[in-house]
Amino acid sequence: MWFESTQVETVRDAFPEWMAFLFAFFSYLGSVWFVAPAVVLAFWFWDRHRFGYWLGVVMGGYAIMVALKSFFSIARPGVGPAITPDSLPTVLALLYAPAVEIHTTTFPSGHALAGTIVWTMLALEVDVGTRVQRLVVAATMIALVSFSRIGAGVHYPIDVVAGVAVAVGYLALVLWLRERITGWPAPWRRSSRASSPTRTLDLRQAATAVFATAGVLSVLALRAGGGTDAAALLGGSIGAVLAWEYARPARQPWSLSLRRVGQAVVGIGTLAVVALVLLVTDAVVVWFLVGVAGGATVVALPRLVSLASISAVRPDVAG
């Protein structure tokens, strides 16, 4: 009943073939290729103490997804998209294929889960428009991402419903715990955002706690059979918490200057190059070490850039 391919095929065939490209586009807005850069850039260019917490929340969410997929191990519908990558020119196929050629298990939908987390993060934390406007946009994007996975023929309806439900429950828990443990109000009740030494300390502690929680969830995912993905998440959690404790950057974000944007591009490019190692090996230890390097780099990069800038200025001052 819940896992019938005919349901997926009916939805896919209800739309013209060209919609397959639109489904792929919206799929990307819930994929790791969007989620990871979004939270990393938010951490670098907005309030680092607020978004440092979200780095851990995102890693924890992915760990839950990996654990559940490994536990249930339900095969995908076997329907596929209306347009196959093989029928497209090489360049277009390279962009299109990652959204529709998936080889992991189906339940729950990782795109729906991760998309719910990242779009909720943006709605609650980014000061653009009103809170209601941001929540409407977030809800719309979550719905589009979720439906696109069914329209692309790679998920059952129950997969995306479960993905969103798990994400909402997880978000409610981590935000409630942040409020109860640290005293920092949940975003939907943040009436006084003014920074204070106590609240700054609370946010730092909250980020440490959520990184540690992500690590625990990653261990559970590893025990559930999550393999390399769980190992990378565990490494990322460890690298992030170590950098947060011993190389924590200043709260003040980078400015949107050409120089800072260039540094961000170099940083993400470096992470992408390091991640290429994962394409040629399934060694759990390698994935773990790459995760450690990635988590540490994301958190510590602003601090390292600041130290490099100070070192570059000192000779000029001395001269």
Automatic annotation (TrEMBL):
Domain of life, source organism: Archaea
Pfam family, any one: PAP2
Segments traversing the membrane: 20-46, 53-75, 160-177, 261-280, 286-305
InterPro entries: PAP2/HPO (IPR000326), PAP2/HPO_sf (IPR036938)
Keywords: Membrane, Transmembrane, Transmembrane helix
Domain Phosphatidic acid phosphatase type 2/haloperoxidase: start-end pairs: 51-175
Ribosomal protein in keyword set: no
Keyword Nucleus carried by entry: no
The protein's name in its UniProt record: PAP2 superfamily protein
Species in which this protein is naturally found: Natronobacterium texcoconense
